[in-house]
């Protein structure tokens, strides 16, 4: 939004002192919208893994950029929160930076890149490497909330399938993976069964992150803006990745250490570095990598960490 | 003109409601956990916590059932002025407020449908006090091992949990404190 238009709006209503970006309500959304989302969130927590329909609003960003996550964040943020936003694990990509700025301006919340310091973390497609705590809320951006959607396109049918706990089709899909590839080839958005009842799409996180959903001390909230669904996993809740006895679920990652920090336990991105086949593997979680380098760990291609070097 | 009902609302609605909702969210996510809320001064017999919950969650889209002594002019006027919520019988209620004795019988409230289990009532039950000591043993989603909360009775919550994924969800209020019991919580006698 241009500065000129902002001033014009400000002049119109005089503004209230508690608002940061004075033309807007706290956390952008109007109160009735937030109440509607908040009611959906409470029902989502009461029925773990079940997709609660909600009246998703137009947001000042396109669908696919996290409108669901942004609406959930707007409904849960308080002025005391410290927010972190990641996109595929990175704090410094366009999507993460713009959503962080959005809430800095409309909710006046403090922000951070450090996972342990954040109280609300909005994420696109990753769960941070650092263990989450009781005092944190993890908000996922979800593109397609229905795990059965690519198997059954009709909402009326998938809704019935959830009601009847009819998840055979999903197992057939995983079986076909094995028949075709010799193993379960689904690598992200790997379906989980929450508390033994609802099969849920954990959003397109790598299956490496699936085990972190179960028994997580933090509250996990999922928002799908275009598809108008909210769902949740309460703390300390069972979330089992679907598998077969002879083909058990396996949380996989690239079999390398991080080239910058040397971590062997983190999820890695592959980066092409030249046109002759050169590549490096680096932590997808930028904060985890930074914290490790700060603590003195250096990978094969990493330079020693310099704290003041950025300036 | 009667003006008492015009007071007692949130002073700074967006921020007060945000803090109040965080308490409700934490309570519902961690059954048995007691949260303290502030910001509302509702007329008797509504407690501060019940008033805060109503201001945070109710609006013209949510029929409210007032049970027993809570169904009085002062409470009706206050809820109408501050939230615009319509009033209904138990069968059409999204929220119900009252003492444990007054909200009975529980089978009068909607418990959701197989395809939409979220279309179920949330009961705000006014309690004389909220305490974990000597209370029922709670386990299930949101609870690490077990938690405790003194409940008016236990068998009824076991029956409610057996309806899962259908069922009622409860918010217990006393003074300025609230706790919640979603349908997923398993309740055992102390």
Which short descriptors sum up this protein?
heterodimer, A: 311 residues, alpha/beta, seven-stranded mixed beta sheet, three-stranded antiparallel beta sheet, B: 190 residues, Rossmann fold, six-stranded mixed beta sheet
Measured by DSSP, the beta-strand proportion of chain B falls in: 15-25%
> The biggest beta sheet of chain B, please?
6 strands, mixed
Task: Please tell me what the overall shape of chain A is.
Answer: globular
Structural class of chain B: alpha/beta
Tally the helices of chain B: 5
Radius of gyration of chain A: 21 Å
Q: Give the helices and strands of chain A as they follow along the chain.
A: HHEHEHEEEHHEEHEEEEEH
**CATH topology description of chain B:** Rossmann fold
Q: What topology, given as strand order, has the largest sheet of chain B?
A: 1-8-7-4-3-2
Proportion in helices of chain B: 25-40%
Give the low-confidence spans of chain A.
1-19
Written overview of the protein:
The complex is a heterodimer of chains A (311) and B (190). Helices cover 28% and strands 16% of the residues of chain A. Chain A is an alpha/beta fold and 311 residues long. In chain A, a hairpin with a 4-residue loop joins β8 and β9 (229-233). Residues 1-19 of chain A have low confidence and may be disordered. In chain B, the strands form 2 sheets. A 6-stranded mixed beta sheet of chain B has the order 1-8-7-4-3-2. The longest helix of chain B is centred in the first third of the chain and has 17 residues, at 13-29. Classes of the chains: A alpha/beta (311), B alpha/beta (190). Chain A binds chain B through residues 18, 25-27, 31-32, 34-36, 38-48, 50, 52-53, 75-80, 137, 159-160, 162-164, 195, 197-198, 217, 219, 232-238, and chain B through 12-15, 17-19, 21-22, 24-26, 28-30, 56-59, 61-62, 94, 114-118, 120, 122, 140-144, 164-165, 169, 182-184.
């Amino acid at each position: 939004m241009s500065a000129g238009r902002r001033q014009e709006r400000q002049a119109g209503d005089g503004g209230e002192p508690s608002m940061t970006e004075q033309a807007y309500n706290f956390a952008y959304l109007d109160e009735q919208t937030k109440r509607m989302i908040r009611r959906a969130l409470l029902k989502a927590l009461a029925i773990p893994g079940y997709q609660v329909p909600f009246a998703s609003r137009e947001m000042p960003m396109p669908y696919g950029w996290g409108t669901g996550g942004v609406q959930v964040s707007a409904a849960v943020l308080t002025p005391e929160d410290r927010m972190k936003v990641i996109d595929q694990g990175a704090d410094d990509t366009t999507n993460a930076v713009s959503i962080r700025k959005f809430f800095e301006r409309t909710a006046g919340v403090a922000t951070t890149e450090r996972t342990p310091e954040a109280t609300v973390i909005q994420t696109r497609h990753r769960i941070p490497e650092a263990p989450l705590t009781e005092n944190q809320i993890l908000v996922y951006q979800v593109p397609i909330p229905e795990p059965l959607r690519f198997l059954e396109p009709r909402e009326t049918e998938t809704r019935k399938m959830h009601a009847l706990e009819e998840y055979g089709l999903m197992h057939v899909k995983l079986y076909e993976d094995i028949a075709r590839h010799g193993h379960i080839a689904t690598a992200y958005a790997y379906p989980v069964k929450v508390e033994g009842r609802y099969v849920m799409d954990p959003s397109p996180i790598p299956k490496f992150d699936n085990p972190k959903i179960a028994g997580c001390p933090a509250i996990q909230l999922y928002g799908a803006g275009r598809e108008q669904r909210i769902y949740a996993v309460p703390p300390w809740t069972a979330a089992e990745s679907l598998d077969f006895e002879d083909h058990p679920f396996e949380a996989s990652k690239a079999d390398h250490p991080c080239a910058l920090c040397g971590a062997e336990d983190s999820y890695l991105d592959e980066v092409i570095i030249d046109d002759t086949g050169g590549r490096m593997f680096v932590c997808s979680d930028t904060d985890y990598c930074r914290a490790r380098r700060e603590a003195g760990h250096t990978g094969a291609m990493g330079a020693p960490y310099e704290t003041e070097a950025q300036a | 003109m009667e003006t008492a009902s015009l007071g007692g609302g949130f002073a700074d609605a967006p921020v007060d409601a945000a803090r109040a909702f965080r308490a409700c969210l934490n309570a519902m996510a961690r059954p048995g956990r007691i949260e303290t809320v502030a910001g509302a001064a509702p007329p008797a017999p509504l407690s501060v916590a019940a008033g805060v919950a109503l201001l945070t969650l109710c609006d013209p889209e949510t029929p409210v059932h007032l049970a027993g002594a809570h169904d009085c002019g002062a409470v009706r006027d206050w809820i109408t002025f501050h939230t615009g919520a319509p009033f209904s019988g138990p069968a059409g209620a999204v929220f119900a407020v009252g003492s444990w004795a007054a909200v009975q019988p529980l089978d009068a409230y909607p418990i959701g449908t197989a395809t939409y289990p979220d279309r179920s009532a949330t009961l705000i039950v006014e309690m004389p006090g909220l305490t974990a000591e000597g209370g029922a043993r709670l386990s299930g989603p949101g609870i690490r091992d077990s938690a405790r909360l003194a409940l008016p009775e236990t068998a009824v919550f076991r029956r409610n949990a057996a309806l899962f994924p259908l069922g009622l969800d409860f918010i217990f209020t006393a003074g300025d404190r609230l706790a919640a019991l979603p349908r997923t919580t398993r309740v055992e006698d102390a």
